Amino acid sequence: MGIPFHTLICASNTNNVLTDFFTTGKYDLRGRHLEMSISPSIDILKSSNLERFLYHVTKDGALVSKLFQQLATEKYFEISEDLRQKMATYIEPGWASEAECKTTIKTCFDQNHYLLDPHTAVGLNVALKRPPSARKLLLSSTAHYSKFGKDVLLALGLKPISDSPCELFKQLEGLKIQPVMNESLKNAMGKHEIQNGVCSNDLNAVKEKIEIFLKELKSS
């Protein structure tokens, strides 16, 4: 995109296989188990982007293919120290525990009245652990806190009033927080649910269900 980023921060939650890899050069899934967290989009063991990143750094398709074939069969591979150091010119790794993630959500809210979703909280926590630097840091949030209403309320020390996403949405809105709720999202949450059915695993059934849904939507 032309933006002169110096390095990127690779922030992981407790499933910190990438932090270990960028730190040691060893991608080791042996004995690892996926841990469920409140930041589920980064609950990973096998990174889908790492293969492309390694090719970007090495431009060696044969090497990358060999490494990931070994990962598939042995659940392990190791790169050279030279390659690990080369990756370090692009990536700064770090990770945050569940407790650190929750504390970051609450601290940011208490200090700035700004509510983070759990994924952004992981990124902020890792960013704040970095050594002081004169370089500016950009933290870009990719999720909305309302998707994780129950978890962020608990992180704030508040009791969720319901398991219903709509009710949790209203509870969050009542906190008068930043960023403000999106108006289109607020309007959508206020409407009655139109589609809540389940169809069979059949293409024609799916098509029929979609057509019925669109007709109902058009007439509503």
* Main sheet characteristics: 2 strands, parallel
| CATH A-level architecture of the largest domain | 3-Layer(aba) Sandwich
Which overall shape is indicated by the principal axes computed on the Cα atoms? globular
Q: What's the pLDDT, averaged over the residues?
A: 90
Cross-sheet strand order for the largest sheet: 1-4
Number of strands: 4
> From the alpha-carbon coordinates, what is the Rg to the nearest angstrom?
22 Å
Notable characteristics:
mainly alpha, Rossmann fold, two-stranded parallel ribbon, two-stranded antiparallel ribbon, 4 strands, 48% helix
Describe the structure.
The chain contains ten helices and four strands. It folds into two domains: 8-95, Rossmann fold, CATH 3.40.50; 98-190, Rossmann fold, CATH 3.40.50.1100. The chain has helices spanning 17-24, 50-58, 61-74, 81-88, 98-112, 118-128, 149-155, 165-173, 183-189, 203-219; strands spanning 8-12, 26-28, 76-78, 91-95. Helix 2 packs antiparallel against helix 3 (61-74). Helix content is 48%, strand content 7%. With 220 residues, it is mainly alpha-helical. A two-stranded parallel sheet has the order 1-4. The mean pLDDT is 90. The longest helix is centred in the C-terminal third of the chain and has 17 residues, at 203-219. InterPro entries: TrpB-like_PALP_sf (IPR036052). This is Threonine synthase-like 1.
Helix and strand topology:
Blueprint: E1 8-12, H1 17-24, E2 26-28, H2 50-58, H3 61-74, E3 76-78, H4 81-88, E4 91-95, H5 98-112, H6 118-128, H7 149-155, H8 165-173, H9 183-189, H10 203-219
Parallel strand pairs: 1-4
Antiparallel strand pairs: 2-3
